[in-house]
Design a protein that fits this description.
This protein is α/β, with parallel strands linked by helices and 367 residues long. The protein contains ten helices and 15 strands. Helix 2 packs across helix 9 and helix 9 packs across helix 10. The protein is globular, with a radius of gyration of 24 Å. It starts with 6 loop residues before the first strand and ends with a helix. Bound molecules: guanosine-5'-diphosphate (GDP) and zinc ion.
Length: 367
């Protein structure tokens, strides 16, 4: 290893304070260079990292540097995700367009383009079951939609081709057939199928132990996360304006609304509301439900940021109770001019910090 050509690899797994990095076909157990932790720039599974102190016989090394990542998601914590495939069954459990829309919207908000996999297609009673989904999501919204059944392995061919040389995350409710799908793509994976209750209890405690699996041995760079993504997410982290932005259905109509900050609910001159086909569809109802959550979040965010901006000035008065005067904290005077969006982003960071603390506690309980 020369200084000009340090060994780089991909972080595949994090467990019990060790990072497992795959480099040139070897899986190294790595510690982290102290400064990285201090700077708070710890690598995420999926990151490319630079190694030093490489010791091939013991397969150990140290992570010296985290290379730039193109994106990151929080559930599970992963970097450089190429695609998210929403696996939703046609039946058992019954396809629910509103749930599907929730997944799609979370993924769009994360800056990724979802791919739809409608599983258990063998349970279709009529052709229209499938055609309706195709019409809404593929023809109407331009998403890629695949209909699959593990009883017909050839129905997975197109999906298999799509995963090549990429990092994929599967999303979708428990029981929708995600493990079955992966087992059919690669018989060697042998993931547990159908043990839903066990998976749920396991899932709560292992959120940090995400691992990237090699989907096909002959393709080391075709990777898939072993943990489903975007589960149990509410829309309590996004502002209404941003939410409406990711609705593809509104794209053509939005510029014709009278108000540029239109949320397409009851505003005058709303072009979205004027389109009967849009407001009578399932997607619009999904939107209203998400919007309600997002509005609650906005209210909570602005109340909490107002609280932060004020402090108390204590005036000690002889013989009397101290007088507390509400005043703007010096350092927060400028903050009062911050936009709501910035304040919300601060809150998000705070929430995330709390969340990772919670996870750390859970982790130390399970380790
Ligand atoms: P996961 O929780 O999303 O990983 O779902 P599983 O892979 O554990 O599957 C849940 C149940 O659906 C199991 O009983 C599977 O046998 C069944 N299943 C999965 N894929 C299919 C399919 O393509 N067709 C049918 N009929 N059943 C399936
Ligand atoms: Zn509007």
């Amino acid at each position: 290893m020369t200084a000009e050509h340090p060994l780089t690899g991909r972080l595949r797994k994090y467990h019990s304070n060790f990072y497992y990095v795959e480099a040139e076909g070897v899986l190294y157990e790595c510690a982290l260079r102290g400064i990285i932790k201090k700077e708070g720039t710890e690598p995420l599974v999926g990151d490319f990292v630079e190694l030093d102190s490489v010791h091939l016989p013991s397969k150990t090394a140290r992570i010296n540097r985290v290379l730039a990542r193109k994106n990151a998601i929080t559930r599970p914590k992963l970097a450089n995700v190429d695609q998210v495939i929403v696996v939703y069954s046609l039946k058992e459990p019954e396809f629910d367009p509103h749930q599907m829309d929730r997944y799609l919207t979370h993924i769009e908000l994360a800056g990724l383009t979802p791919i739809l996999c409608i599983s258990k297609a063998d349970l279709a009673q009529t052709e229209t079951d499938l055609a309706n989904i195709q019409t809404l999501y593929a023809d109407g919204l331009g998403y890629q939609v695949f209909f699959t059944s593990v009883k017909k392995p050839e129905s997975l061919d197109a999906l298999r081709a799509l995963t090549k040389h990429k990092i994929s995350v599967l999303a979708g409710p428990s029981g929708s057939g995600k493990s079955s799908l992966l087992n059919t793509l690669n018989q060697h994976l042998r993931l547990r199928v159908g043990e839903v209750s066990e998976k749920i209890s396991r899932g709560q405690h292992t959120t940090r132990h995400v691992e990237l699996l090699t989907l096909f041995e002959e393709e080391p760079d075709t990777l898939i996360a072993d943990t489903p993504g975007f589960s149990n997410l509410k829309f309590n982290y996004v502002l209404p304006d941003r939410l409406q932005e990711v609705f593809r259905d509104f794209a053509e109509l939005r510029p014709h609304c009278s108000f540029s900050d239109c949320l397409h609910v009851d505003e005058e001159g709303c072009a979205v509301r004027a389109d009967e086909a849009v407001i009578n569809g399932t997607r619009y109802q999904s939107y209203l439900n998400m919007l309600a959550e997002s509005r609650l979040y906005k209210e909570a965010a602005s109340v909490s940021s107002q609280k932060e901006e004020f402090g108390y000035k204590q005036l000690d008065r002889k013989g009397k109770d101290a007088l507390r005067i509400l005043r703007l904290k010096e350092k927060n005077r400028d903050a009062s001019r911050r936009t709501v969006r910035q304040q919300v982003s601060l809150l998000e960071q705070h929430d995330q910090a709390e969340e990772s603390l919670e996870e750390e506690v859970q982790e130390s309980e399970t380790d």
